[in-house]
Design a protein that fits this description.
Elements: E1 13-17, E2 32-38, H1 43-59, E3 65-71, H2 82-91, E4 98-101, H3 112-117, E5 124-128, E6 134-139, H4 144-156
Length: about 160
């Protein structure tokens, strides 16, 4: 698991939805990246995290803050397919890029990015600063005011 202020490991995504090309944290350097990890069948993700991701997109300029979703499935694998995720994204109007966390080794239910970041479940929030360093790895809901303050602080930091 990366320590805070270490360079954030690459997202290990098998497929991107709502993106014409693959996305990497490296390609987003210079902008703050908010990665909202979720599962379709996670009540807190549907009620809090994903609506918050949409609000962050509305409030912050895309030249400063990039919002990504990461569908990281560690349970109910047969129900949470790409087809189901596409329908879910359409129904909930999730138009920001959504990555599907790459499956780990056969028999391991924990996907690759989830394992790499030491995520404990969903929803989780990862914040990566303009230099590509991991600045937050949080399990559970983050209050809007708190997240807004964190993002504003990261946006205000001058790139070295």
């Amino acid at each position: 698991m990366p320590a805070l202020f270490d360079t954030a490991p690459a997202l290990q995504v098998s497929q991107w939805l709502n993106s014409a090309a693959p996305i990497s944290l490296q390609s987003l350097r210079g902008r703050v990246v908010a990665v909202f990890t979720f599962q379709m069948l996670c009540p807190a993700c549907v009620a809090h995290s994903l609506p918050q991701a949409l609000r962050v997109r509305e409030v912050f300029d895309a030249t400063d803050v990039v919002v990504l979703g990461l569908h990281t499935v560690f349970e109910h694998h047969t129900a949470m397919t790409e087809v189901a995720l596409r329908a879910f994204a359409h129904e909930y109007r999730l138009d920001f890029p959504l990555g599907i966390d790459r499956a780990a080794a056969p028999g391991d239910p924990v996907p690759a990015t989830m394992r790499e970041y030491g995520l404990r479940g969903t929803p989780s929030l990862l914040l990566v600063d303009r230099q590509g360093r991991l600045r937050l790895n949080h399990f559970g809901h983050v209050a809007d005011l708190q997240l807004g303050a964190l993002l504003a602080g990261l946006v205000a930091e001058v790139a070295a």
